[in-house]
Design brief:
single chain, about 425 residues, alpha/beta, four-stranded parallel β-sheet, 16 helices, 13 strands, about 40% helix, binds ligand F0G
Length: about 425
């Protein structure tokens, strides 16, 4: 196992804490997968009580970095549910849709999968402090895993721009919080400078070990599908770590002889924060950072750090990138929520984008599609309240507006008649 620059090929030992090559390129963890691995290796562990087997990340350890067991920090994470809902499939316009709910991870987002691997790496190499910039979910996850590992953490967040629930989680888990005047991209620049200047371990998804953990969303998904591969995978894209991770997952599963075909990937951005989408439309001939603006604060990112790795994944999977408006995203969220599944706004980009791509004829209606839901419904209650009760909600067919009545059965009667 070693780290390799995706631009110039320079190699670094696995214990290196460098997140970029000397040439500025992004790094990949290169694993030593030389022999076929049987899926039964992973299936047998489903009924094991070994803490590593019970993690939906470490159960797949032959496809992950080798880290000494005593350094592994796990809650455990993963093992998230897969939801199949006919009404949502019909709304999106496809024959079969399964939704992998990563909001069911211990801190409520997919970040925990990356964090167990990268925090374990940090512990292994003796990091004295860990850090990240965040739109809220990474910071909650960093704070929790750092606390478990007994390593102090410092997180950089754009002041006033992350949800109260995410800020509350991060405060509660005990991270030192630094609120930065500016947006996520400014916080991301600052954290990279701070880590380089002060020998702090960087836990953002620019860190290749984070992506190693996030690969397991795809492993876990395939295992739940009894290793049947969907035609398409649809996921939201912000800083583009997850997009990069699924590309790595497909490469490693192919090396292990497990992947029978490569699913096509659709990455969905919010229209007001869509530099990756714009680059895709240009055939990846140009890339321009943007000033990000969207209701989905988790993906309010204008200059994604994993751009080059994510571009590679789109090319590798013959993938596509789409952008959805906030209204499209919020209606998709309302559909997911009222199906009893629920997710945070950024996650709903998956369903909104799928619907758009089916209507455009890019994704055939006969497809078997798996969508990633990346965060929990309760991560952003403010957006829920604004959609259902805020200004303009009376014109939204999906708005669920509470009524106020006198405490009498007579008053209740009218409500019940309408509700039934
Ligand atoms: N969905 C949610 C709920 C997220 O929190 C994020 C990213 C994404 C999607 C986008 O994933 O960055 O891998 O493309 N949140 C980060 C954070 C940036 O700081 O919590 P990505």
């Amino acid at each position: 196992m070693f780290l390799r620059c995706m631009e110039c090929g320079q190699q670094f030992p696995a214990t290196s804490v460098q997140t970029r090559c000397d040439c500025g390129g992004l790094l990949d963890v290169v694993l030593d997968i030389t022999e076929p691995i049987s899926t039964s290796t992973f299936d047998q562990r489903l009924c094991s009580l070994n803490p590593l087997d019970r993690s939906g990340v470490w159960r797949f350890r032959e496809l992950l970095p080798t880290i000494p067991t005593e350094a592994i920090v796990t809650k455990p994470e993963g093992n998230t549910n897969l939801y199949e809902n006919g009404e949502l499939a019909r709304w999106a316009g496809v024959d079969r849709l399964v939704l992998k709910h990563e909001g069911e991870n211990p801190t409520g987002s997919f970040k925990d999968r990356g964090m167990t691997v990268a925090t374990s790496h940090a512990k292994w190499v003796g990091a004295r402090m860990v850090a990240c910039a965040s739109t809220g979910n990474t910071s909650a996850s960093v704070a929790a895993y750092a606390a478990l590992a007994g390593i102090p953490s410092i997180v950089f967040i754009p002041e006033g721009k992350i949800s109260a629930a995410k800020l509350g989680q991060t405060i509660a888990y005990g991270a030192q919080i630094v609120q930065v005047h500016g947006d996520f991209d400014a916080a991301m620049t600052l954290v990279q400078q701070a880590c380089a200047a002060h020998d702090i371990y960087l836990l953002n998804s620019i860190n290749a070990f984070r992506l190693e953990g996030q690969k397991t969303i795809f492993y876990d998904l395939l295992q739940q599908l009894e290793w049947r591969v969907p035609d398409w995978i649809v996921m939201p894209g912000g800083n583009l770590g997850n997009t990069s991770a699924i590309g790595r997952a497909m490469t490693d599963l192919s090396s292990a002889g497990i992947l029978t075909k490569t699913p096509r990937l659709a990455v969905i951005q919010a229209a007001g924060a869509a530099p990756f989408y714009e680059a895709f439309v240009s055939g990846f001939r140009s890339y321009e950072p943007v000033e990000a603006s969207t209701v989905a604060s988790a993906i309010r990112i204008g200059d994604p750090v994993s751009y080059t790795r994510a571009r590679r994944t789109i090319e590798q999977t013959n993938g596509v990138v789409e952008a959805v408006t906030d209204d499209e995203l919020l209606d998709a969220k309302a559909m997911i929520d009222r199906a009893g599944i629920g997710c945070e706004p950024a996650s709903a980009a998956s369903l909104a984008g799928l619907r758009k791509l089916v209507h455009a004829g890019t994704i055939p209606a006969s497809s078997f599609v798996a969508g990633y839901l990346t965060g929990h419904l309760m991560k952003d209650a403010d957006v829920v309240m604004e959609y259902h009760l805020g200004s303009g909600s009376e014109h939204r067919p999906l708005a669920n507006r509470p009524v106020v009545i006198d405490p009498t059965l007579d008053a209740l009667e009218g409500v019940l008649r309408r509700a039934v």
